[in-house]
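Put briefly, the fold is written as integer tokens. One such record reads:
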Amino acid sequence: MREELALWPLMHLFGTVVWIAVFVVLAWALVSWLSRRNAPMVGYHPTPPPVQFSALEILRQRYARGEIDDATFQHMRERLETPIEPEQQQYT
């Protein structure tokens, strides 16, 4: 009986170590699962958002492609570069 009582502190220590190991394994599994869930997919390459050209840049591209002549380009460029006065603005 004395031998059984002498092993009791060791059993208590062993139980504590087992519970600590269980918690460590659970924490590792949770971290591993979350990191895989947030990791980018293999071979996944998101497309960049489309480039939004300004009206003046579109006008220059149309002129360079020959879609509009020089007079039209100059006229439209002047209209784009002149500031709009507050009373001319129309609110929709």
In short: The chain has three helices and no strands. The CA atoms of residues 45 and 80 lie 37 Å apart. The chain has two domains: 1-37, 55-83.
